[in-house]
TrEMBL record:
Its main location: membrane. The chain crosses the membrane at residues 111-134. One of its GO terms (molecular function) is transmembrane signaling receptor activity. GO terms for cellular component: membrane. It comes from the Eukaryota. Keywords: Membrane, Receptor, Transmembrane, Transmembrane helix. This is Neuronal acetylcholine receptor subunit alpha-6. Residues 7-92 form the Neurotransmitter-gated ion-channel ligand-binding domain. PANTHER family: NEUROTRANSMITTER GATED ION CHANNEL. SUPFAM superfamilies: Neurotransmitter-gated ion-channel transmembrane pore (SSF90112), Nicotinic receptor ligand binding domain-like (SSF63712).
Length: 158
């Protein structure tokens, strides 16, 4: 999905040498395809490319520049699941296109995944053999087995 990164509230600064500086802002929603080969103990890099469509770099109409070699995370709210390990940002040209490329390297907290995923599965696995302690004549054996099965099902679908 492509959309503009601006609205009418961002002003442009015009300098006496003809340079126009425009700092648009916006909230971008970016999706990166996950690599789940080593899930819970992995590190992934998400690459975001920004380029002005409809303009090329031959006339220097819209040259993009990165003011820092890192991404400012001062407005970032720390996540319970992910930790941002490193960030980078650089501007370059490829052919006639000027673009800025941002990279975020993040990893998951393994302890969080152990508590959220592995511990409930082990707990359900330990509860399952307890069905044989119930008397077979009572109807509670079937209901207990179904309750453990449903708890597995609910846990794995959420």
């Amino acid at each position: 999905m492509f959309r503009l990164i601006s609205n009418d509230h961002f002003r442009a600064t015009i300098y006496n040498d003809g340079t126009i500086k425009w700092n648009p802002g916006g909230l971008l929603k970016v999706k990166c395809p996950p690599d789940i080969g080593k899930f819970t103990f992995d590190s992934q890099t998400c690459t975001i490319d920004l380029t002005p469509w409809g303009y090329d770099d031959t006339d220097r109409e819209v040259p993009l520049a990165a003011t820092n070699s890192y991404i400012d995370l001062s407005f970032y709210d720390k996540s319970v699941v992910y930790n941002i390990d490193s960030t980078s940002g650089e501007a370059s040209t490829q052919g006639f296109l000027s673009f800025v490329q941002f990279k975020l390297t993040f990893s998951t907290f393994p302890f969080y995944q152990v508590i959220i995923t592995i511990c409930p599965v082990i707990f359900n696995l330990l509860l399952n053999p307890l069905v044989f302690l119930l008397p077979s004549a009572s109807g509670k054996r079937a209901s207990y087995s179904l309750t453990v099965l449903f708890s597995f099902t609910v846990f794995l679908t959420s």
